[in-house]
Amino acid sequence: MSESSYLLATAAVLFFSGLTTIATARNLVKNIMGFQVMLFGVNLALFTAGLSDTGPSLFSSTLVVLSIVMGASVEAVALSLAIFLYRKYGTLNPWLIRRLSH
Amino acid sequence: MVASSVAALLVRRLLWSLILLFYSSMLLGGILFWFGAVYAGLFHIITFAGAVSVVFMVIIMLVGQDPPEKRLLRPELIIGLALAFAGLAPFLILSEQLTPIPNKIQETTLVNSSTDELSFLWDFQAWSLLFVLLPVSATILAVVNLFSKEGERNE
Predict the structure, then answer these.
(1) Do B136 and B98 belong to one domain?
(2) pLDDT in tens, B117-155
(3) Which chain B residues contact residue A29 at CB under 8 A?
(4) Both B55 and B102 in a single domain?
(5) Among the partner residues A1, A29, A68, nearest to B44 by beta-carbon distance
């Protein structure tokens, strides 16, 4: 297996672990952490996609930086929403919040 | 880095999750740095290990911690993780045929200038992995939703 394959496998593990956490976690902060791990996987995959013998492609590095910026912005908004929900419902458990909101 | 990230997601206390996530961010930035993407790596460390970690810390300080879950390894989590690792196989097979993303847009026309009409089916480009990523993600979400008892209770 080549170097890219290892990096891509790492990216896949990160992405799917984050996705599983988002689907199963019962704490909104943990959900956002899962999103961050997913984002790590995406960044690593984007970077690996441009990796060649001459080094990383400028295009893929640019995409990684764009992904970092957008991911950090989305996380900041998600965390502010988590604070809002905690103040309104008194819990961070999404299942409980769904019950309380009905 | 994988161990640190997965441990951050599995550990019960949010503070330990945050610390492990911080290390994971540092390591991923180090990997980018090591492979030559210096600015991307530095930007990654500054953004995630710096700013986002501080925001997470403030959030945890504000809301405190919910009581930790009693059962860490729930069935839907185990099934989801098993599917996650099962999703690795197509990735490893496809990654052997990857064509790196070119530096210039014009080069893409050179890469795609294959004479066979059906060549797009087996001349995998880097972004062709999306076709694997989407079905596997959809499967994970569907199976996890299927096994989630709390979701059924509310219907």
Answers:
(1) yes
(2) 555 555 555 556 666 667 677 777 777 666 665 544 444
(3) 14, 56, 59-60, 63
(4) no
(5) A68
Report domain A3-101's class: mainly alpha
| Among A54, A61, A60, residue whose Cα is nearest residue B40 | A61
The answer to whether A43 touches A10, Cβ cutoff 8 Å, is no
Q: How far apart are CA A82 and CA B122, in angstroms?
A: 44
Residues 6+ apart with CB under 8 A from B82: none
Residue B80 contacts residue B144 (beta carbons within 8 Å): yes
How would you write the pLDDT of chain B (155 residues) with one tens digit per residue? 888 888 888 888 888 889 999 999 999 999 998 988 888 899 899 999 888 998 888 888 888 765 556 566 666 667 777 776 776 666 666 666 666 665 555 455 555 555 555 555 555 555 566 666 676 777 777 776 666 655 444 44
Which among A16, A26, A60 has the least Cβ separation from residue B84? A16
